[in-house]
Structure formats: structure tokens, C-alpha cells
Amino acid sequence: MNQLRSILTTATLLVTACGLLAGCSNPDGSGTSAEKPASAAEATSVDEAAAAALPQSVRDKGTLVVTMSQSSPPLHFMDGNTTVGVDPELAVALGQTLGLKTEVQSGPFDGIIPGISAGKFDMAISQMSPSTERMKVLDFVDYYQSGSGIGAAPGNPQNLTPDALCGKRVGVLKGSFQDLKRVPALSAACTTTGKPAIETMTYPDMQAPSLALAAGRLDAVYVDGPTLGYAIKQGAKIELVGEKDLSPVSIGFKKGAGMEKAVQLGLEAMSKNGKYKEILDKWGVGNGAISDFAFNKAQ
Q: DSSP string covering 68-114, please?
């Protein structure tokens, strides 16, 4: 428990100032946790209909390899060498519902899609937005909804608002939906009206932009709302300016893999038996629960 408290304290600093078309790679030294993350709840039962909907190759393998990034508390982050948070617990529960063992592998955010395409991972549960561009290589089933959080230094000295970031230095996670869609759209709106473009600064993880904001090298951060809110609750020296773009995030898997029915039925079973909401509520993000686990619904 002391170790987890230490990790949560680190997460506070990590987002002191505080997902595309991206995904998470899993380079050497990435975190791996088998069947049960350190914080996982009790096991859930197999749903026979969901398990029967799995492709035969997945049933034969018996293991579900799930990837996610490492630094977005409370959604997914590291406790020592173990990935903990909302997403790893959902991954394990989904695997159990499908009658599979689950192996969670985590790493930087921008290698998820290449890793899935190469067969390294079966799926990503990493708050990934189901954009039309990503759908060229992945299929998606919605599992949660969240928006983007905009954070500034304490006191918001520049009086920033979510829609007034023109000409500002804004930190985002490399390859995230904020990096590839949200901030570029805001910046284009700036230049269309004759205002200066947003200066986007990308980072491989959440710690770097947090420190940059604290040091005055950034004017704002534009990241996943739950991550920003969690950091603030933990005492991070950052002020929430506002939230934008509430929309579903999805479980992604290789295009044409035939996983969608099993994943949808698995999530529906978890919703009916209470496991889905139990995990979200445990981490304080129950307001992001959804009931429509839609397939390939682009945002």
C-alpha cells in the first residue's frame, strides 16, 4: 500500500500541470502484468455467449494480450512493474468474461497501432478515440466516454479558456486524439479568423508536459479529462481551465479480426452483472459509463 501511495504521489507530480491516430508501443522495459493487476477486483464469471463469439484462433490460444499506455492515472499507470487503474482492470474482467487469461503489456502511447498491426497485441484498451483514420487499420468497440481537459498554472495567470488558446504553447501527448485532431482543429479556427496558430508541443508521456507547465515552458496542457481531474484531486499544482469534446473511447483490435461481437457481448455481460460500473466507480470515473457499446462509430 505504501508503494501504491508513492506511485499516486508521483502521479500527482506527473500531472502537476496535469487518447488518435496513435497507440502504445511496448519497447524494452515496458510494464507487463499477467492475469491480475495489483488493484484488480474479484474475478467475474464466464459469459458463454460472449466466449462462443470469439474467433476460433483466439479461443485456441486461450490468452488475450492487451496493450495500453503507462502514464494516465487513474485510467492506466504503473505501480512498480505492474500496470494498474481502470483500463487494466477492465481488460482482466473482459478476459475472464470471455473465458481467457489476460496479459497486460504497457508502453509509450504511439506504438499501439503498429503493435496490433504486427500481431504483437490482440487489442488496446487505452482510451483510444475511434477516428475514421484509425479505422483504416483497426476495428473499434466503444467502452467508455471522456473528454479533453485543459489545465493551466495555478491561478490561471493568462486567464485562458478552452476556446481561447490562439498563440499559446499547448502541451499534448504525442499521437493522442488531442495531438492529431482536437488541437489542430482549434488552431485552424484561430488562423481562419486572423489569430496566431496554437504552438503545439508534443511529449511521449504525461510527466514531461506537466513539468514543462510548472516551469513556464508551456501555457497550457490539453489531455484526457479523467487524467487531469485525478491529478488535481491528488494535489497537483494545476488549475482546471475547462473540459471539451466529451465523446466515446474504444477498445481497438486488428481490422477484420472478427472480435467485435465477443467484445460487445462481453461488455454487455459486465454491465448487467455490475462488474463494469464497479471498476469505474472504484477509480472515481463512474460518470464516464456508457450503455451503447457501439461498433466502428467514428468520432
A: EESEETTTEEEETTEEESHHHHHHHHHHHHTT-EEEEEEE-GGGHHH
Q: What is the CATH number of the domain that holds 133?
A: 3.40.190.10
Mean pLDDT of 70-99: 93
Alpha-carbon distance 220 to 48, whole Å? 48
Query: Which helix (H) or strand (E) covers residue 227, if one does?
Result: helix 225-233
Can you give the residue range of the structural domain that contains 282?
Answer: 2-146+247-288
For residues 240 and 141, membership in a common domain is answered with no
C-alpha cell at 19: 487518447
113 Cβ contact list (under 8 Å, min separation 6):
21, 22, 23, 124, 134, 137, 138, 252
Q: Does residue 273 form part of some domain?
A: yes
Q: What is the pTM of this model?
A: 0.71
Question: Are 4 and 39 in contact, with CB atoms under 8 Å apart?
Answer: yes
Quote the pLDDT of residue 10. 40
Same domain, 29 and 140: yes
Mean pLDDT, the chain, rounded, equals 85
What integer pLDDT is reported at residue 278 of this predicted model? 96
For residue 108, the model assigns a pLDDT of: 75
Pairwise CA distance, residues 95 & 65, whole Å: 9
CA angle 177, 18, 37 (to 5 degrees): 80
Number of domains in the chain: 2
DSSP state of 54: S
Q: Specify whether 130 is located in the same domain as 221.
A: no
